[in-house]
Amino acid sequence: MKIEDLKDKKIAIIGLGMEGLDILSYLKKNGLQASVFDSKTQEELGENFTKAESLGANFILGENYLSNLSNFNVIFRSPGVKILLPEIAEAEKRGVLVTSSANLFFSSCRGKIIGVTGTKGKGTTSTLIFNILKNSFNNAFIGGNVGLPMLSFLDEVKENDFVVLELSSFQLQDLKTSPHIAVVLNITSEHLDYHATRDEYIRAKQSIVCWQKKEDFTIINGDYYEPIKFSRLTPAKKYFFSRFRKLEEGAFINGENIVIKIGDAEKIICRRQDLILRGEHNLENVCAASLAAFLAGAKTESITEEVKKFKGLEHRLEFVDERNGIKYYNDSFATTPEASIAAIRSFTEPIILIVGGSKKGSDFSELGKEIFSSSVKTLILIGDTAAEIKKASEEASFKGKIIEGCKNMEEIFKNTEDSAKPGDIILLSPACASFGMFKNYKDRGNQFKSQVL
């Protein structure tokens, strides 16, 4: 489906977030109008309503907002809107085309798309690929969940340009085209408050490879079972990356070196100690990004230069400051137990860990074991999951100090400083979403940083 296919169609957009506005703006640019459906009221939508109104949108808002979807020809579903909602399913059954901005982008993009998915590390990997391609080719784009909304730059993309897209399960769920280079990082459990089951979540991710062609490339984390299964779903040329073993082809860690090997050619990108990025898990992201950029034609010198100077992303194990011999790290983007486990493993120094948040069906038993076996000396438990994380940690025999009941970041921070000594790490790595005490993970991380700086 391309933009010209939408002429004379009645178009609905469900969800007026960033992506909903992006769709509306692109349609307006091409002389098309749409109706916006959202469960929020005009007051709740605030600035987004004002922007949409200026773009000529009609509105169906509030309770029962999905009651007349079958009156439309095309529905654009925003990523946060469940595809299996009964009203959407009924409209589709009646012949309404249900699609997304990702489908429109993929069908219309003139350049070559590099798509990155996984449970964690997507943003870091996507951004590093983009930085390398910009260094090597000058003209590259980045969008999806990082960078700009993808339709906002669609018309600027030329035939030989590369576009790097970070793709979530929400965006991949109904995608009907796969990227030229698909990067599959590790896949665990997440968004079980959105997806009915873990299997449904994984199936949603599979669109990144299942529409590929023989001339495409798939880059897969070879250290874990779930991503390896994706290799069976694509006819593309497959390469793996690993931080645990040397590979016949792909990207891997060989002693202290990060290496790419394609055929008989083996290239050392840099040494591990050359990286500014902290965390063993980030070696996987560096391997994946280096390999993707190499297959896209980037120069080895560009890969090395960008990898060595890459500091990572804000709120992703971000070094904030050092005060009185105490180092502060903001890992607010860690919204799963697996992400926080990776953060904890990045340090050997004593850790005061700020952890907890809103519930989304996660199992904290492995996190509890990691807390016990690691250098964590103090737990500051926050949010709705505090009791679950406390139970998991105590069942794993954690005997360190546990602090509960903090109501805001100021209280949290006071307790961390009361417990900290020179040489300690104060680590915000919540293992949970942020809703409740904070607006979102950015607000949580920014509040933490404002206490430090």
TrEMBL record:
Record-annotated Mur ligase central domain positions: 116-293
Catalyses which reaction(s): UDP-N-acetyl-alpha-D-muramoyl-L-alanine + D-glutamate + ATP = UDP-N-acetyl-alpha-D-muramoyl-L-alanyl-D-glutamate + ADP + phosphate + H(+)
Binding site for ATP: G118, T119, K120, G121, K122, G123, T124
Pfam short name (any one): MurD-like_N
Cellular localisation: Cytoplasm
GO MF term list: ATP binding; UDP-N-acetylmuramoylalanine-D-glutamate ligase activity
InterPro entries per the UniProt record, alphabetical: Mur-like_cat_sf, Mur_ligase_C, Mur_ligase_C_dom_sf, Mur_ligase_cen, MurD
Keywords recorded for this protein, A-Z: ATP-binding, Cell cycle, Cell division, Cell shape, Cell wall biogenesis/degradation, Cytoplasm, Ligase, Nucleotide-binding, Peptidoglycan synthesis
EC class name: ligase
Pathway membership: Cell wall biogenesis; peptidoglycan biosynthesis
Similarity annotation: Belongs to the MurCDEF family.
Function recorded in the entry: Cell wall formation. Catalyzes the addition of glutamate to the nucleotide precursor UDP-N-acetylmuramoyl-L-alanine (UMA).
NCBIfam families: murD
Protein name: UDP-N-acetylmuramoylalanine--D-glutamate ligase
